[in-house]
Write a structure and sequence with these properties.
Belongs to the ABC transporter superfamily. This protein is α/β, with parallel strands linked by helices. The chain contains eleven helices and 13 strands.
Length: about 300
């Protein structure tokens, strides 16, 4: 993977905690202006990798450069140019929304005038202007998440790291947050996102890696990964629990691959409707059927044999 302009480059990057190897020699590169994702279940090594990139956890193996610098030698200089959104909001709940931005901005040595002006821009960006003088504690989870992201932008970072940005949010709050992140990308901010939500990775990421057990098991754009590891369509045949096993022999040759789940069969095929007709012609009668496009969830099932949602 070449490209001298990479904002993050890792070669053989590893992280060990005692006898436990959380990250096992991964290679990756993040290019300016892209949204790069780490997709995988809890425990895959995503957060450990993010902590090394954000210069708060030293690597125990391999090479890593962030913004062209070595985190072991230039941690403070790198952190001054990063925005970090942790998994858990760590806002000061006794301060107002606006005060959270003002106080955080002063940590970077920014002038009071600059912080005040920047805070107003970010309140508007996060759709929190009307709540600017409210204390943080009563805010909804989505508002707190948007404030955390706004706070991470106070120093105009070149690189924004978001660790599980929408965990625990309702669908409306998630979509609003996705919209805010898309706008940041349009403004030229480079994003690195970890998630175990497959739809989130498809929505946000230009390119991503799938991690499992501390290793990268696949890399590419969402479309490339689906094309490489799945088929164009998937036929879902749902049965009463346990009945799917009896139906499997009748449909196994109708698809490139058949996945057996507790209440259904997934037939990976280029033409779901034709496969469904053939199954009906053979006397297979599911409770319901669905033809859909392949997704990143199907990719993950292919690679690891389990879904991403914990």
């Amino acid at each position: 993977m070449a490209g001298d302009g990479a904002l993050v480059r890792a070669r053989g990057l590893g992280k060990r905690f005692g006898d436990f190897e959380a990250v096992r020699g991964i290679d990756l590169e993040v290019r300016p202006g892209e949204a790069f994702g780490f997709l995988g279940p809890n425990g895959a090594g995503k957060s450990s990798t993010m902590r090394m990139i954000s210069c708060v956890s030293p690597r125990t193996g391999g090479e890593l450069t962030v913004l062209g610098m070595d985190p072991d030698r230039a941690g403070p200089r790198i952190r001054a140019r990063l925005g970090v959104v942790p998994q858990q909001d760590n806002l000061d709940t006794e301060l107002t929304v606006r005060q959270n931005l003002h106080v955080y901005g002063r940590y970077f040595g920014l002038s009071k005038a600059h912080v005040r002006a920047r805070a107003e821009e970010l309140l508007d960006f996060a759709q929190l202007t009307e709540r600017a003088d409210d204390e943080v504690e009563p805010l909804s989870g989505g508002m707190k998440r948007r404030l955390t992201i706004a706070r991470s932008l106070i120093n105009d970072p070149e690189l924004l790291l978001l660790d599980e940005p929408t965990t625990g949010l309702d669908p409306q709050a998630r979509h609003l947050l996705w919209d805010r992140l898309f706008r940041l990308k349009q403004q030229g901010v480079t994003l690195i996102v970890t998630t175990h939500y497959m739809d989130e990775a498809e929505q946000l990421c230009d390119r991503l890696v799938v991690m499992d057990g501390g290793r990268i098991v696949a890399e590419g754009s969402p479309g490339e990964l689906i094309s490489r590891h799945a088929t164009r369509e998937v036929l879902e045949l749902r049965f009463a629990p346990g009945a799917q096993a009896a139906a499997e022999p009748s449909v196994v040759d109708l698809a490139e691959r058949v996945e057996v789940l507790p209440d259904r069969l997934l037939l990976y095929t280029g033409d779901g409707e034709s496969a469904l007709k053939a199954a009906h012609d053979r006397g297979v009668v599911p409770v319901s059927s669905l033809v859909r496009r392949a997704t990143l969830e199907d990719v993950f099932l292919r690679l690891t044999g389990r879904t991403l949602v914990d």
